[in-house]
Queue: 2 jobs
Job 1
Amino acid sequence: MYKILAICGSTRKQSSNLHVISAFSKVAANIFTTEVFSEIADLPHFNPDLDTEDPPKEISRFREKLRAADAILISTPEYALGVPGTLKNAIDWTVSSMEFSQKPVALITAGTAGEKAHASLLGTLLIIESRMTEQTQLVVSAVKSKMNGDTFTDNKTEIKIQELIESLKQLIENKSMTLLPRPTIMGN
């Protein structure tokens, strides 16, 4: 069994994205054990002056959980056409310590829409060298109409989740897969 650390981009107690993570966990139960990182709202605001060899204890715990996982699952809503601040804050704390670098990552953006936040977060994850493929990312728009509690009721969505799970497993096992390229940064 592979260990997945799941991060919900929403801090709502009954977030649709927590339901997505729970549904993912049920569908993938024979492949992955999934731990939900539920302390995202407790992380301090990113401050480069505190990003040292001795960061705040909440950050040390978060980084340890990321390092211990075989892969990371992020399920997030889109807020005002962007990435939720708490999620971006959490990721910012990992840039210098590189927990996402070469780590297999699955990204699910689930909400009313989600395309803008998904594109933005995908760019961030790729620039910090997360290992991702076309098959380890998914936008689930109108998510509330496709779930009942922690169960997918939309057949197409459930099939896509199953494909994402299998692709994430292959990515963990280093199967020959076409990774998404890191964005090109043009200098002066």
Job 2
Amino acid sequence: MSDKPAAEPVNVRILDRDYTVGVLPDERESLQAAARLLDDRMRELRGGNRMAAFERIAVLAALNLAHELQLLRERNQARETRIQHALEGLEQRLNKLGLD
């Protein structure tokens, strides 16, 4: 028997369609927030055009969200690089002072 918690079914509604997704109990709220975000984005893309193809709206929403994620990853990487350089500079200063 595994000590891993079992995934539980969670119902989400995205652009007037219901989906059941398995999720770990401690990730439930995050998944529901993600579903709300996706629903909001898809509604925004659809606008007043109720005849827009669901698949097209879904792909555009996914592309927009993936692009945002990529930008955040790049910014995070740049921030980590700056922090690493700052730490290396501090370490060099401490070494010069003999405080290593």
